[in-house]
Every structure is written in C-alpha cells, then in structure tokens.
Write a structure and sequence with these properties.
The chain is of the alpha+beta class. It contains 5 helices and 8 strands; from the N terminus they run E-E-E-H-H-E-E-E-H-E-H-E-H. The N terminus is likely disordered.
C-alpha cells in the first residue's frame, strides 16, 4: 500500500456539487452509527479480499476483532464514518476516519491525527464517484474539527481517487520484523 497524506489547502469539493449528506445521483450519504458495524465490517473485509492480502481464516479472525475495536472507538468519538446508500437503502460504500493518538508535532497542538481507513465500494457501484463522495465527506468532517492534515494508506485501486482529491505520496517506510509474514502478505497479493 502507498502512504499518502492530504495537502493543506488543496481543493476538496467542486463548485456546484450536491450536498455530501443529501440525496444525489441515486445515492444518500449518511453518518455511520454503531448499528452499522456489520456493514463496516463486511465492507472492510471486501476491501481486503479485493486487495488480495489475506487468507479467509485471517479475515475471520480480523472480523471478530474489528467489531469490538470499532464499537469502542465509535462510542468514544475516536472513529467516525460515512455510509452511502442506494435509493432502496442498500449500503453500497463506506469509509471511516480513526482519530489516532499521535506524538507532538510542530504544525498542530492536537494529540490525535485523523487517519482515513476502510474505504470500500461494492463492485457494481464502482466508477460512479461514490468513493470520491465518501472521502470528500470525511475530509469535510476533519476540516470542521480543525485538523490541519489527514493520512491514509492507499491501495493500488484507490490511488487515483486520492490523488484526484489532492493527496500526495509521502516517504513513509516499513520494515517487516517477521520475514514469514512478509512472504505471506505478498504471496496473497500476487495470487
């Protein structure tokens, strides 16, 4: 995955675009609640499946851990999300922001840093701008809360969405401490 961050002051919405939280083009975007945890879990699992990064048994374990993790953070206000619904109420896309605890940094007094995560759109709804609308809504919420920057890790599929919204690649690096995990990770992506 590629690490990208939001450039301060870059454009987030085009003039004349419909409200992100209203109905437009057959999609309604609304805030996620604790009642949406199963949708967020299913969409997150779909994201990992589409990226090809984990076997089913790893995803099963992930699913069991994700619901309580997300529930606790939603309740504490450390996680918020958006759900895109079709006219008939089917959740077709979603995404979240995790307000991660952060180290002191010179450009902000905030002790939390917004991290966009789990952006997912059902395959039949892709290439319609739904993920773009979810991300713009999350950016708007972060901006309203006074955050100067957001971060995310982009999949190959998501790069064009994020770069089109003003995100830029960064120099974040990683080192695998357990080489067997690295082999497993990349063998799933190639398969």
């Amino acid at each position: 995955m590629h690490q990208v961050q939001r450039r301060r002051g870059s454009p987030s919405t085009a003039r004349g675009q419909p409200s992100l939280f209203g109905s437009a083009r057959g999609i309604r975007i609304r805030p996620a609640t604790v009642r949406d945890l199963e949708t967020l879990r299913a969409h997150r699992r779909g994201m990992f499946v589409d990226m090809g990064v984990a076997p089913s048994r790893s995803l099963d374990g992930h699913d069991r851990r994700f619901i309580p993790w997300a529930r606790a953070r939603l309740r504490k206000g450390e996680l918020f999300g958006l759900i895109a619904e079709s006219r008939d109420g089917v959740p077709v896309a979603s995404g979240c922001v995790w307000l991660r605890e952060d180290q002191p940094r010179p450009w902000t007094e905030r002790e939390r840093s917004p991290y966009i995560m789990s952006i997912y759109t059902l395959p039949e709804w892709r290439r319609r701008g739904v993920a773009n609308r979810i991300v713009r809504g999350l950016l708007r919420a972060c901006r309203r809360q006074g955050y100067p920057m957001v971060r995310l890790n982009a999949s190959r599929m998501g790069l064009s969405v994020y770069e089109g919204l003003g995100f830029e690649r960064t120099t974040e690096m990683r080192r695998w401490l357990d080489p067997s995990r690295k082999r497993a990770y990349f063998s799933k992506r190639r398969g």
